Amino acid sequence: MTVDERAEELASDLGVDKEEVKEDLENLVEYSVPIDEAVQSLRRKYGDGGDGSGGTRSKDSIDEITTADGNVTVTARVLNVGKRSIRYQGSDQVIFEGVLADASGTIDYTAWQDFGLSPGDTITAGNAGVREWDGSPELNLGESTSVAFEEETLEVPYEIGGDAELVDIETGDRGVDVEVRVSEVERRTIDGRDGETEILSGVLADETAKLPFTDWDPHPEIEEGASVRIENTYVREYRGVPSINVSEFSTVEALADDVPVSESGTRLPIREAVEAGGVYDVEAVGHIISIRDGSGLIQRCPECGRVIQKGQCRTHGDVDGEDDLRVKAILDDGTGTVTAVLDDEITEQVYGGDLEDAREQAREAMDQTVVADTIRERVVGREYRVRGHLSVDEYGANLDASSFAEVEDDPADRAADLLSEVDA
Ligand SMILES: [Zn+2]
Questions:
Q1: How far is the CA of 298 from the centre of ligand 1 (A)?
Q2: How far is the CA of 354 from the centre of ligand 1 (A)?
Q3: How far away, in angstroms, is 311 Cα from ligand 1 center?
Q4: Exposed end of the chain (fewer CB within 10 Å): N or C?
Q5: How far is the CA of 29 from the centre of ligand 1 (A)?
């Protein structure tokens, strides 16, 4: 059947003008959309659901795509386009990735070839592969996928482009653009996959948060204190928190005006920070509800530094443990809990003594758990402001504390003060 005949058939099926359908059809075919796909696409456009024949399922909306689908055809708006190089089956391959959206929702995509996508484009992706990632469907645009650019713009309730504030960035984000101040940076030589290579690593900051970063292809604009716009980054997990990756495909532009930076940590409810999968430099305020085992006077393996039980390291076996102080305290802010991990210095402050005092107390009691008991009595039930890096792993959420300060102003006192003012 010729394009003309298909157009005639389609026009009569859908009850629309043949010339209009034919023009659309020719357009799609010109963009190398297979004719069956093109017909499906037009059926959808003119308000017929399509019958799903042709080996791939046409989807009316993104929220209908499930991980059970094999291949789908969908019309969507391109929100952003990231470009990077990955090593795939032993060779370097450039991929394009980001988010597609329609009125019903969004879906991540990876394009294995350059379809010429730009943020804001409305496309019909024909025969796109569906794969599962982290329990959600994602689209693979590959060799057998056709991409047609639609003239009519699909309106979507999402922002076009990759601009993001640091507080909203999560592990797995791609095609992200940021405007930030470089608050720390160091140049390092690492053993990369192609031998020794120089990279930059450090910390980026904006008004909402701070995040660690790595620049795999050092950009001269990234220097301490500089305010820069970085386009086309991707986000990977590093030590339990999201880390911004700058690559050879990223562009870095120095900004004339300083980007404002927050001096405090990102203040977040614990539940939100945990759900984000980790937050760099976060501040949580809550009550200590208990002290976990492995707090107080502990012993570490001299080889690996891990906490040991009864002189046994899980990796190094029988070892001469070295004494240390630390606290694992459960902090609850009403939205969730996190284990605040206090290092030796903060533990000394909380305990009110140093390692020698702790040893002394343990010797006298002939039991080292008395040190943890003393700490427990001091902190449980009190309110603390804890700042540090929050990471989440299979065992739960940890907040590696850089500061741990009691909130002097107890809400009960505050209420009492307020009442006495009212009374007066
Ligand atoms: Zn060890």
A1: 14
A2: 24
A3: 10
A4: C
A5: 64
Of 190-204, 206-220, 340-354, minimum mean pLDDT range: 190-204
Digit-coded pLDDT (tens) for 339-385: 999 999 999 999 999 999 999 999 999 999 999 999 999 999 999 99
CA of 37 to the centre of ligand 1 (A): 60
CA of 310 to the centre of ligand 1 (A): 13
**From the CA of 329, how far away is ligand 1's center (Å)?**
24
CA of 303 from ligand 1 middle (Å) equals 5
318 C-alpha vs ligand 1 centroid, how far in Å? 9
pTM of the predicted protein model: 0.69
pLDDT value for 9? 78
**341 CA → ligand 1 middle, Å:** 20
User: What is the tens place of the pLDDT at every residue in 21-39?
Assistant: 888 888 777 777 777 777 7
**How many Å lie between the centroid of ligand 1 and the Cα of residue 324?**
15
What percent of the chain is predicted at pLDDT more than 90?
A: 66
Confidence at residue 353, expressed as pLDDT on a 0 to 100 scale: 97
User: What secondary structure, in 3-state letters, does the chain show?
Assistant: CCHHHHHHHHHHHHCCCHHHHHHHHHHHHHCCCCHHHHHHHHHHHCCCCCCCCCCCEECCCHHHCCCCCCEEEEEEEEEEEEEEEEEECCEEEEEEEEEEEECCEEEEEEECCCCCCCCCCEEEEEEEEEEEECCEEEEEECCCCEEEECCCCCCCCCCCCCECCHHHCCCCCEEEEEEEEEEEEEEEEEEECCEEEEEEEEEEECCCCEEEEEECCCCCCCCCCCEEEEEEEEEEEECCEEEEEECCCCEEEECCCCCCCCCCCEECCHHHHHHCCEEEEEEEEEEEEEECCCCEEEEECCCCCCECECCEECCCEECCCEEEEEEEEEEECCCCEEEEEECHHHHHHHHCCCHHHHHHHHHHHCCCHHHHHHHHHHHCCCEEEEEEEEEEECCEEEEEEEEEEECCCCHHHHHHHHHHHHHC
The predicted pLDDT at position 50 comes to: 41
Residues, the chain, total? 424
